[in-house]
Design goal:
- With about 160 residues, the protein is α+β, with helices and mostly antiparallel strands.
- The protein has a single domain (about 1-155), classed as OB fold (Dihydrolipoamide Acetyltransferase, E2P), CATH 2.40.50.
- Helix content is about 15%, strand content about 45%.
- The protein has four helices and eleven strands.
- Strand 6 (about 90-95) and strand 7 form a beta hairpin.
- The radius of gyration is 16 Å and the shape is globular.
- The protein starts with a helix and ends in a 9-residue tail after the last helix.
- Residues about 1-10 and about 160-163 have low confidence and may be disordered.
Length: about 160
């Protein structure tokens, strides 16, 4: 299944070279993030998530999406941010990485946004070092910044070597 992802990346890269990029926007703790639209499989309201014993703190659990088990990642935790208040329901953006589906739990999902490639900048020096590996760069928009989320790095977890 990873073959379509490679094709999607190629199409996204071609669009970026043509001077435009399209992102599904999302908000996490008031910050606007974007994921390339071709990487997004689905956007869902809050789902019932089953906790996975001994999973890292960032792994919220697993959910059933049309018969497939999907690992749910809490983006707030992954970015080192405080948890949402108990009464706040998050939303889910489903992406594919390495042939597996993942649900990224975010505060809210926005619109599909086309941005000009000439508004792209590398990560600023003032960006939190913990976030730099998860962001490809920023786009300056009217009145705010869109951080381009690096989904592959976000879903790559360091594991302790077996002793």
């Amino acid at each position: 299944m990873s073959e379509p992802s490679n094709k999607a990346l190629t199409v996204a890269d071609a669009r970026a070279e043509a001077g435009q990029a399209e992102f599904v926007t999302m908000s996490v703790d008031g910050q606007l993030f974007g994921i390339p639209v071709l990487l997004v499989q689905d956007a869902l309201k809050a789902q019932k998530i089953t906790r996975i014993p001994l999973a890292s703190r960032e792994v919220a659990g697993a959910l059933n999406l049309r018969g497939r088990i999907v690992t749910a990642i809490d983006v707030r935790r992954r970015l080192g941010l405080p948890d949402r208040a108990n009464n706040e329901a998050g939303m889910n953006i489903v992406v594919e990485h390495g042939g597996e589906l993942y649900s990224l739990i975010v505060d809210s999902v926005g619109e599909v946004l086309k941005v000009d490639a000439d508004t792209f900048e590398r990560n600023p020096a003032t960006l939190d070092p913990a976030w730099k590996s998860f962001c490809k760069g920023i786009y300056r928009l009217d009145g705010h910044l869109l951080l381009s989320l690096d989904v592959a790095n976000l879903l790559t977890f360091q594991t302790a070597a077996a002793a």
